[in-house]
From TrEMBL:
InterPro entries reported in the protein's UniProt record: CobQ/CobB/MinD/ParA_Nub-bd_dom, DNA_Partitioning_ATPase, P-loop_NTPase
Domain CobQ/CobB/MinD/ParA nucleotide binding: 4-185
Organism encoding this protein: Niveibacterium umoris
Protein name: Chromosome partitioning protein
Family annotation (Pfam families): CbiA
Highest taxon listed in the record's lineage: Bacteria
Length: 213
C-alpha cells in the first residue's frame, strides 16, 4: 500500500482540498483497474475528509474511508492499494513520527503569507531531522497563488531555497470550493470545466507516477 501524507502544522493552508483531489486523481486513474483501491483517511478531529466522503455521489470512482469497528483502531479497508492521509494543524511529536513511519511520501501545501512560510520552514526542518523520514519523498505544493502579487514573489524566493521539489503553483479559484461542497474533485467533472486547474495538476500527476516506478 502506497501512503501519501498531506501535512503542514499551519491550519487553513489547503490540506483537505489537496487531499481530496489527490484521492480523486488516484481513484480516477485506477477506475479501469479493478486491483486499484483508494482510501482517503483523516487523522484530524474535525474529520473534514470523512464528511467530504459522505457527500460523494454514487457512481463515481470509489474512494473509501477508514474501516471503523467498535473497540478497534481505525485502519485501511482490506485490499487498499493507495492511501491519502489528511492531517491536522499542529501535527508534531510522537503523532508526527508515527505517521511519517507509515508514509512513502509527504506533500506539504503552502500558502503565500509570512505566517505560512515561517510555520512551514520549521516543519520542514523537523521532517529533515526525523530518522523516520529517511527515504520518504517530500515535496511542496504552493496553494491559492496569484502570480501578480508580491506575496507570490516572496513565496517563490522561499521555495527556491528549499532544495525540495515544488510540484505546482495552484491558482486561487472557487472551483475547489464549489466541487468540495458536492463531494467532487477536479477529476469528477468534464475537463473543459476545470481546464486551467487540470493543467496545473499535470506535474503532480507525473510525480505520483514516479513514486510507483
Amino acid at each position: 500500500m502506497r501512503v501519501i501524507m498531506v501535512a503542514n502544522p499551519k491550519g487553513g493552508v489547503g490540506k483537505s482540498t489537496l487531499s481530496t483531489n489527490l484521492a480523486g486523481h488516484l481513484a480516477w486513474r485506477g477506475a479501469s483497474d479493478a486491483s486499484t483501491r483508494v482510501m482517503l483517511g483523516d487523522v484530524d478531529r474535525q474529520q473534514s475528509a470523512r464528511m467530504w466522503l459522505s457527500l460523494r455521489p454514487v457512481g463515481l470512482p470509489r474512494i473509501a474511508g477508514w474501516d471503523l469497528e467498535p473497540g478497534q483502531p481505525a485502519r485501511p479497508p482490506k485490499g487498499t492499494t493507495h492511501a491519502v492521509i489528511d492531517t491536522p494543524a499542529g501535527l508534531h511529536g510522537d503523532k508526527l513520527r508515527g505517521l511519517v513511519k507509515l508514509a512513502h511520501a509527504v506533500i506539504v501545501p503552502l500558502q503565500p503569507s509570512i505566517f505560512d512560510i515561517l510555520a512551514t520552514r520549521a516543519f520542514l526542518q523537523t521532517l529533515a531531522e526525523l530518522k523516520a523520514a529517511k527515504g520518504v519523498q517530500v515535496a511542496v505544493i504552493a496553494m491559492r497563488i496569484d502570480p501578480r502579487t508580491r506575496s507570490a514573489e516572496q513565496l517563490e524566493r522561499f521555495t527556491d531555497g528549499l532544495g525540495l521539489p515544488v510540484l505546482a503553483h495552484l491558482r486561487d479559484t472557487q472551483n475547489y470550493v464549489q466541487l468540495a461542497a458536492h463531494g467532487l474533485t477536479l477529476y469528477d467533472v468534464p475537463e473543459t470545466r476545470v481546464a486551467k486547474d487540470r493543467q496545473q495538476w499535470l506535474p503532480i500527476e507525473r510525480w505520483l507516477r514516479l513514486l510507483e516506478a
